[in-house]
Amino acid sequence: MTMNHSVTEFILFGLTQDAEKQKAVFGVFLIVYFVTLLGNFLIVVTIKTSRTLGSPMYFFLFYLSFADACLSTTTAPRLIVDAVSQRKTISYIECMTQVFAAHFFGCMEIFVLILMAVDRYIAICRPLRYTSIMSRRVCVVLVILAWGGSCIHSSAQILLALRLPFCGPNVIDHYFCDLQPLLKLACMDTYVINLLVVSNSGAICMVSFIILLISYVFILCSLRNHSAEGRRKALSTCSTHFIVVIMFFGPCIFIYTRPLTTFPIDKMVAVFYTIGTPLLNPLIYTLRNTEVKNAMKKLWCGKCDQLMNDAWGFKCILP
What we know:
Subcellular location: Cell membrane; Membrane
GO cellular component, one term: plasma membrane
Mean pLDDT: 85
Distance between the termini: 61 Å
Largest sheet: 3 strands, mixed
Order of helices and strands: EHHEHHHEHHHHH
Number of domains: 2
Organism: Rhinolophus ferrumequinum (Greater horseshoe bat)
Number of strands: 3
CATH class of the largest domain: Mainly Alpha
Strand content: under 5%
Shape: globular
Strand order of the largest sheet: 2-1-3
InterPro entries: GPCR_Rhodpsn, GPCR_Rhodpsn_7TM, Olfact_rcpt, Olfactory_Receptors
GO molecular function, one term: G protein-coupled receptor activity
């Protein structure tokens, strides 16, 4: 494996070099990151402790929220700290770790979204066999396979990154380490590696997106045989999932399916799927899901009630 240690650290250019805009970046993304962690934490704890959210859909939603929190943590803290730092450096090892983590949790989110679509397909198109097909054991095995697939993908990415020799310059025109901006700094012909990146990340994004679209087409076709109430409930659930799919896959396809090309807008597009989507997912799945909202009210009202009774003798009442 070819490794060149003449560059031991990189400088992250960030979203902007304007001092005033950097202050805005710090404030906005600090709030966004806090809300993202809080929202996904509430979903994870609610699903883990609620007896009413035991279906496979919420089992997969648990891991989607976990992947969202981890994906945001991979990139957001570095962006926030660099916005107020004079020296925006990241070591070579930290950079490679960030490449691995970003692709691992991003790929994990892709696979979990596929599992959620498969779950909805079986629930709507094979309702009589749903409980036998999507048993707890099957769901656990599917999640393990998703973890394994994510590890294989991210390992392939980091192996490509480790083969890149860096002789200088060392300024990464991005707010986190990713293969595309790193390829621009490599002291070698990166044409083949770039094609490998596209065939790996780009293929996963495109194939997964096509699989998801096909599954939703089958679901929509099968709804013709359902009652009006059944169609309404199924469409409500599937529309929520489809919104998440579009928000995540749109930017990913834009970034990872273009060989040998980068655009200035790439950084803002990356913000959307690494930081924006993890923020919006909890809002979408709670605001549009009555079961999750009721479970949250029951759980957190109970804790609020207990705290108030212990401290003041008050009761917490939620609608």
